[in-house]
Specification:
Blueprint (H helix, E strand, L loop, with lengths): L2 H25 L2 H6 L1 H26 L2 H4 L1
Length: 69
Amino acid sequence: MPEWLERELEWLERVLEWLERVLEWLESMPEWLEREPEWLERVLEWLERVLEWLERELKWLESMPEWLE
């Protein structure tokens, strides 16, 4: 596997770990989130953009199967 691809995969893994921490944080504050629906909406919109970006990255990687072997 090329070195750049290893770095890309490591970076994607860190992004996913970070997203898990954000979701855990959100789950730990239900009362606050209920009081601040605008804030929650902004966070969810941002998370949606991150997920869309991740999907594009994964599709890009999947388009080059010879590099993933």
